[in-house]
Design brief:
- There is one protein chain.
- By secondary structure, the chain is mainly alpha-helical.
- It contains 21 helices and 6 strands.
- The strands form 2 sheets. A 4-stranded parallel sheet has the order 5-4-3-6. It has a two-stranded antiparallel sheet with strand order 1-2.
- It is globular.
Length: 516
Amino acid sequence: MERPLLGLGLTFADLADREGLIRLDRAFVARLAESDPDLHARLMAGRAAPDALGAKPEAELIIALATHLQDLLGEVFGITEELAAITAATKALDPIHETKRLFVQRQAVKSYSDVSGFDGPALRAQIEAKLNARLTEDSFVAAVASWKDDAEATDLLKRYAAWATLSEAGRAAHAGGILFGAPRKIDPAHLLHLETIERDGVTMQRLPEHQWRAREGFALTDPGMSTAQGLDQMNYCIWCHNQGKDSCSKGLKDRTSGAFQKSGFGVTLAGCPLEERISEMHMIRAQGHILGAFATIAIDNPMMAATGHRICNDCMKACIYQKQTAVDIPQAETTILREVLGLPWGFELYALLTRWNPLDLRRPLPKPDSGRKVLIVGLGPAGFTLAHHLMNDGHTVVAIDGLKLEPLGFDPNAPVKDVERLYENLDDRAMAGFGGVAEYGITVRWNKNYLKLIRLLLERRSQFAAFGGVRFGGGATLSMDDAWDLGFDHVALCMGAGKPTVIDIPGGLARGVRQA
C-alpha cells in the first residue's frame, strides 16, 4: 500500500481516483460544517439545486468558500506557509492600490492635467530631500499619509504624481511600477500610437523603438505582467458581479433591446465565450487567496493553460470600461496561473482542481462511469477541452490526431513537485504533435510548455487514450463505420475550420508576405 505523502492521510494515487476524491470532498464538507455551519448549509443547498440560486447568491457562495478551500489545500500539500506569504505580499500592496485610486488619480491628475512645464527630476529631488531617503512607491505612499496635514508638501506630491503619470518621461522613470498610472481615453480609430518615418524614399508608420520586442528564434517575446501588475489590474476592476454588470463575463448588452452591443469595429461584445467568473476571480485574488481564485477560474475554464494573455481577449473587449482603458483580464488570469504553478506541487494543485472543485456546484466531482465511449477526432484546443469535460461526466475517451504524437519521455503519473523540471527551452523544443493549432500555429506569443501540462492533465486519466498518426474519414486510417464497429457511442469531430482564411488585400500573397 502506498505510504501517505499528503495531509489527511491521502496519497497522490488517491487524488487520481474518484473514490479518493470523494474522501477529500467529504473532509472538506465536514470541516466546513464544523467551522461555519451556515456556509455549510448554503453549500449543500447549492449543490442540491444549483440552478435555483441566482447569479449573485452563487457568486457570494463561491467567494465565501474560497478561503476554506485554500486552507484545506494548504494542509493537504504542506504549503500553508507559502500561501500565507502570498496573502501577506498581496495585502502589503493594498496601500499602493488605495493611494493610486484616491490620491494619484482622483486628486493629482485632476488638479494638474497639464504637466508640460513641470521639472520631474527637480520635484523628485525636493521630495527625497524632505524624506531624507530615496523615492520609491512605498515611500511615496508613506509620504502621502504622513504629510496630509501639510498643504505645501501635499501639493509637491500631487505635482510629482501628475508628472510621473501623464508625461512620457515620468512614465519612463516609473516603468514596471503600478502606483503612477491612469486609464487613458480610448479612440477606436487610434488604438496604436505610431510614428511616421521615411526610409529609402518610402514614408511608413511604425511603433516607437522603445516598444519593440526582438523576435529571435522561438523564445517568448512577451513574458506577461508581473504579479504586482496583475494585482493592479484586478484592483482596477470594479468587481461588478454584485450588480450583475460583469459584461466581461456575460457580454455587454443594450439596455433597451437586450441584444449584445457592438464595438466601433462592428465586433459583437458577447464577453467570455466560457462565461468565466472574472469579477469573482479578481476579488478573491485581490484578497490574497490565490488558490481560491484559481479554483474560481477552473469552474468554467479548467484548460486555462491554453488561454490567458495573447490567446483570447473577448472578455477585455466587453469590459464595463468602454470609453477608457479596459481591465487587462487575460494578463490577470495569466499571473494567477503562473503563480500557482510556481508553488511546490503547483501542477498537482492544477490537476486536482480540474477533477475536484468544491466551488463548482454543478460538478464538484467526476461523475461515475457511464459505460459510454467517445471517439474524439483532433487534439487541438477543442478536442482536448472536450476530452476533459467528457471524462468528468463519466465517459471513456479515445482521441486520435493526424499528427504523430511524440512520447513524453517520462512517467506521466509521477508526482511533480517543481513544474520547471517539465519545461524545455523553447528554441530547442521539438514539436510533440499535441495541441493542433496551439502547437503549430502559435510561436513566440505563448509559452508552449503549457501544452505539455494540458497533455499531462489528460494522459493521467485512466479513462483516456490518445493515438497519433491516425487520419479519419473515407479512405483514411479510420472510417466512421470503423468507429461504430469498434463500439464507440459517439464521434466528436474537433478538426478545426479545415479551410484557411485568406485576407483579401492587394499583394496579400506576394513573395515574402506571411499570413497566419
